[in-house]
Amino acid sequence: MERDDLVHDHNYSVAANHDEAHGVAIRKTIWKVTAILTIITVVEVLIGAFIKQYTGDQGADNSLWPYVKVGFIVLTVVKAAYIVLVFMHLGDERKNFKMVILVPYVLFIVYLIFICLTESSYWNHILHQEESGVIEQEMSLNAYCNKALEFDKTKTVHL
Amino acid sequence: MAGHSENISRSELWGGDGSPFRISYGKQWMWMFLVSDALTFGGLLTAYGFARHQAADWPIGEETFNAMPFLGNGYPLLYVALMTFILIVSSVTMVLAVEAAHRLDKKGVVKWLLLTVVGGLFFVGSQAWEWYHFIHGTHFGSILTSEGWAVLEYAGSEPVLQFGRGISITGAEAQALIDSSSASMQGANLIENEYAPMVPQYADFFFFITGFHGFHVFSGVVFNLIILINVVRGVYDKRGHYEMVEKVGLYWHFVDLVWVFVFTFFYLV
Predict the structure, then answer these.
(1) The pairing of beta strand A54-55 with beta strand B158-162
(2) Do A79 and B260 count as a contact with CB atoms less than 8 A apart?
């Protein structure tokens, strides 16, 4: 029996073909995006080369660094958006398809990042930011757990 | 009962009316696969962020990765920036191949797809060098002094101890620390690494994430080659469309996309 689904697929694929005039416009966009991606990468490397995470010769934290870090992440997301929307042509797909691809992914990843950073902040606090200011560099699993319990107890007391 | 359906005339059958997304089945499911793969990479990078955020100290990308082939050290991030640029360019040649495919321009597709394969091979080769260099380590490795771990270097005959974060000790003081050092380490493996002796997971994440990505690049090169052979043989001319080029193109752009994030979180931040 003839398979209708394949015929439909075939039509979509054939419909995606375009003529030379249309091709000129598309190629122009491609070169424009290429320039943008290259410039962003060069800017990132220059920032990385000239702005350090530390200042002076004693390894003090650079107060600018948190902003630079956010800047890097913003530039990365801009690059990713150009790749996905232009190079992968997601911008040209129907709106329902864009939503099906992007919304669940973004929801999951934002949640994952949130939960992991929250949890690791907690561990960072327990392991390294004790009131004494002593940085503990090595600790057995047992000591980890005891510390976690202690931390919870103090928290409860304060509440 | 199923047998009765054969008696219904074709004009009465509902054909399903195509895809609600107005794209082909194959392209839709390539996207679905990429979403699942992106979740895997998202999970790996978030795990990396977790480990890094809870560690007291973490090696700085531009201090660890500052070597160039044939030129030695002192070129922070330059090599990896070059790798990134190669991958972006190969993504561009891929999108040009897809554009040529939509015009049924066989010669154009062959040209751009071939360049994409070459770019991919350059990238995999660069990564092999990067791994080689990472595994073998610096000339003299790291030593454990009473001031903590430090990478040992020599400026002429003068010893230089790099403690990271721009802190260094030279001269007689450095020599005294070297003489009293209690341990040493060179290069990296899954158990220990000289770049971050206190955080052995650092090298594990490096090997796993860049390795997983490198394997994706390698598979992408293989897929591109297979499609290139089909193009040359005229398989898609007969079909009337070159959608397979578009599908492997999606995969290839995805590989570039992942690298953009690896570049940021492993090397820049």
Answers:
(1) unpaired
(2) yes
